[in-house]
Each structure stands twice: as C-alpha cells, then as structure tokens.
Write a structure and sequence with these properties.
By secondary structure, the chain is α+β, with helices and mostly antiparallel strands. The chain is built from 6 helices and 13 strands. Strands 8, 9, 10, 11, 12 and 13 form a 6-stranded antiparallel beta sheet that branches. A hairpin with a 5-residue loop joins strand 11 and strand 12. Helix 1 runs parallel beside helix 6. It binds guanosine-5'-monophosphate. The site of guanosine-5'-monophosphate has 15 residues, from strand 9, helix 2, strand 11 and strand 13.
Length: about 250
Amino acid sequence: MFARQKLYEGKAKIVYATDDPDVFLTHFKNDATAFNAQKRGQIAGKGEINAAISSHLFQLLEANSIPTHFIDRPTAEDMRVKAVKIIPLEVVVRNIAAGSLCQQTGLELGAVLKQPLVEFYYKNDALGDPLLTRDRLLLLELATPEQLDQLQQMALRINELLSAFFQQCGITLVDFKLEFGLDRNQQILLADEISPDTCRLWDQGETDPDRRVMDKDRFRRDLGDVEGAYRRVLERVLNQPVQPLVQEPVQE
Ligand code: 5GP
C-alpha cells in the first residue's frame, strides 16, 4: 500500500489516495489552529497522539456496532481508512455547556444539560462553519431527511459509548465534533478523527476550571502544557481495553 496523490490538506490532517481506490491514508499533523485558523501553532507529538487516540476510539466504536472508516494504523502518525466522500457537516454533541453554546445562549459554563444536545454546523471555512437549522440543512441539500435522522441517531449512540468509555478513564466528555462520510454504497460511516482536538475533556480528578482541561481549549486559551495534557489522555485511553461497553438499546 503506497500513499500516492495528496487529495486534501486540512488544518490538522492530510488525506492521500493509495493504490487501492477504496482506501485513503490519513496523515495526522502537529499543526494546531483555532478560531477558524486565526490562531496557529504546533503541538509537539500531536500527530502521533491523535492518531493513536483516534485509532483506539474507532476500534471501540466498531466493537460496539458503529460503522467507521477506520482500517488500521500502519505508522505512528498515519491511519488507513475506507475511502468516503465527507458530508459537509460538523455534528456536535454536547453533554455540558461550554464554548459556543455558552457564548450564544448565556448558559453557564459547566451546566449539565438535561439531555444530550445534537447540533449541525455547515463545514465551510469561508462562512465560518455556521450553526444550521434543520430546514437550512435540507434547503442546502447537505443531507436527505433520512440521512439526517440516521446522523442524529448515530451521534447519540456514539455519545453514549464515548461517555461511558471516558468515564472509565476518569474523564468527563463535555462535548465533541464528529464528521461522517458516504462510501461507494452510500452507507454512512463515521469519519475524520476523535481526539483532544475535537472533544472537550475534563479531568475528574481536578476541580479547578483551568487545571481540569485536557483538550484543545488549553491551546485556544493559552493554558500551557498542551502536549502533557494530550499525553495524559492518551495514557488513560490506551489503559482501557477495546470491548463492547453498553448494552444495545432494546428494539420494541
Ligand atoms: P464549540 O461549538 O463550543 O466551539 O465546539 C464544540 C465542540 O466541537 C468542541 O469539542 C470543539 O472542539 C469541537 N469543534 C467544533 N468545531 C470544530 C472544528 O472546526 N474543529 C475542531 N477540531 N473541533 C471542533
């Protein structure tokens, strides 16, 4: 398997075609950006750490019946994935109020939501990734109503699984962003990455609102020790085995 043509270079990853048209190679970079790339920097070791965390979490989700693009991790900073066409949506799931939810609604940082909130943002840098309504999403034909329902259900199930997993790590999963893609059979697969770049993760062993932060907010807010925090997430994640976690919901 050889990486060939560069298909796409994003802020944190590069996607290459391979000699198999059904397989892409994703290279994780150390580059870090925030606030729609207005803030830029590097986090030492980030590519390797995020590739390792993502690989572990994708395998965990696969073991719990979530279809993902993950195939394997041939080198420290690379993941082989199934070729998909990315749906231009950022699907955000929130358990606790933070970030833009606080800024836009006035909810207090740390307020526990009565039920998880699923939000859809338009993945479009030029427009600044705006929050979409269901009707706007359908107007733009970013997904069909059936696909939208499926994305919502998958996002909620992934939240149950990841929340339970991170709980075992002594980490609270505050919120996170997912991306999905369509394979050649139009099947929806979870794609992109799941890492401290894309999740808010709070250390349950810390009460201080800054010290507890184990994710990219350390970079966004200049809290320091970004690499150390990412490494601590990696250690705890790798300490937990990949296994079926929560019972499948009972079908009526
Ligand atoms: P917020 O809307 O509060 O800024 O972000 C909610 C969650 O989604 C956070 O965990 C944040 O890291 C993640 N998120 C939202 N948009 C992006 C994005 O464009 N890139 C990355 N890496 N994460 C995002």
